Amino acid sequence: AQTVTQSQPEMSVQEAETVTLSCTYDTSESDYYLFWYKQPPSRQMILVIRQEAYKQQNATENRFSVNFQKAAKSFSLKISDSQLGDAAMYFCAYTGTYKYIFGTGTRLKVLA
Amino acid sequence: NAGVTQTPKFRVLKTGQSMTLLCAQDMNHEYMYWYRQDPGMGLRLIHYSVGEGTTAKGEVPDGYNVSRLKKQNFLLGLESAAPSQTSVYFCASSYEGFNEQFFGPGTRLTVL
Prior knowledge:
The complex is a heterodimer. Chain A is mainly β.
């Protein structure tokens, strides 16, 4: 069975600094997708970034980028130039078919 | 487009009562999902549907039933509510299994 592990329950970052959130996963499937979702205090889940496993190039969306290490089954999220609006719960998610598996989340605090 | 909507947003039930949560999407998505979110446990899949008239069990299906009579609607039913079902419930939909999931705003359910 596939699993997703986020080992950092909480992280803090100073405004304008860079922070990396960790995610590891376990799977025997060769074709899959990985995602990072953001959940601000409003509770609305928002897609941050998506990575296809067959692509070697790391995905990037503005200040958000991932470090995808397929052999190590690692998928970390880097947030550059952190802003107060980045404060939220961040969930790593995996899908190999049409069922998603979510990690337990990392709460990110941004300090002014 | 309204995206994914959920009704109601909040509900308080007494043990043993029944209720139905309604999820509606206007994006013509084939796939729809129901999750529950509990503190420290991320999102867990309750039931899902890969098309109109189909449903399947997810990770935590006990105590819940679902129906998808119309493509745009996915109903989650609790026949006899228990305090263990106190949670925040999210509905999501996607065009295909590997695609981004779009989430509703959530329903906070309290069972006394």
